Amino acid sequence: MTLPRVTMPELLRMKRTGRKIVSVTAYDYTFARLLDRAGVDLLLVGDSLGMVIQGAETTLGVTLDEMIYHTRAVARGTVRALVVCDLPFGCYQAGPQEAWDAAARAMKESGAQAVKLEGGRHMSGTVAFLTQRGIPVVGHVGLTPQSVHAFGGFRVQGRGDAAAQQVMEDAMALSEAGAGAIVLEGIPAPLAEAVSRKIPVPTIGIGAGPGCDGQVLVLYDLLGLYDDVTPRFVKRYLAGAGQVSTAVETFAREVRDGTFPAPEHCFTE
Ligand code: KIV
């Protein structure tokens, strides 16, 4: 039996009942299908694809067309998971109308059930504009990678009383504006726990400790495939890079020594 698809209201119910939200990033059909079957609740098509798929140093170069292309593939691979399309840098920050145009395209063309955007209090008007018009929005505060140059690098945010208060106010503003969930990235664990207790909507942490209502990891980090950088908060559940290398080296050896293809891989007529 196919379970009904996870919805934004279901995420809220999960927070209320204390069931942790499981989220992983996805960028293509094949992985989406595996993650969906594994019971992941929320598949985030993150603009992290700029780094792990495209090989860029930051997420800034990703376009809306690219996000829609990858999200469409992910949506085709899911039956249960909620699919969220990240709005990339430069397509929503100028104001609610620009954000509406981008988010409406994402919803119409990609098959996502929600969009995600970065930024705190200053984005709350935009979040309200989208949610009041029927587009579910996931917020994202703390270490927001689209602001990497303003931060001077991928640095933990919310350290110290004033910065912590700022993150708290950002999360509260997004929650009041109608965000259905909020990603808390790269902030001290006690602050993430305090935010998660304070706001009514679910928080999904990455580098934010165990006190969040759910956790998200970048798939290629989780599988140990992306080893350009390994942030402290990443746990690798597979030594993927080594396993892929070994498999491909074995294939190369068998091609070169004539072991592959064997008779069972051949058509005889
Ligand atoms: O782009 C992304 O993958 C993200 C997650 C790391 C939260 O925003």
Sheet bearing the most strands, described? Answer: 8 strands, parallel, barrel
Shape: globular
Runs in which pLDDT lies below 50 for 5 or more consecutive residues are: none
**CATH C-level name of the largest domain:** Alpha Beta
Provide the number of structural domains.
2
Number of contiguous helices: 11
Class from secondary-structure proportions: alpha/beta
Mean pLDDT: 97
What is the secondary structure topology, with strand pairs?
Blueprint lengths: L7 H10 L3 E5 L3 H9 L4 E4 L3 H4 L11 H13 L5 E5 L9 H15 L3 E3 L7 H9 L4 E6 L5 H4 L9 H17 L3 E5 L3 H10 L4 E4 L7 E4 L1 H4 L17 H18 L12
Parallel strand pairs: 1-2, 1-8, 2-3, 3-4, 4-5, 5-6, 6-7, 7-8
Bound molecules: 3-methyl-2-oxobutanoic acid.
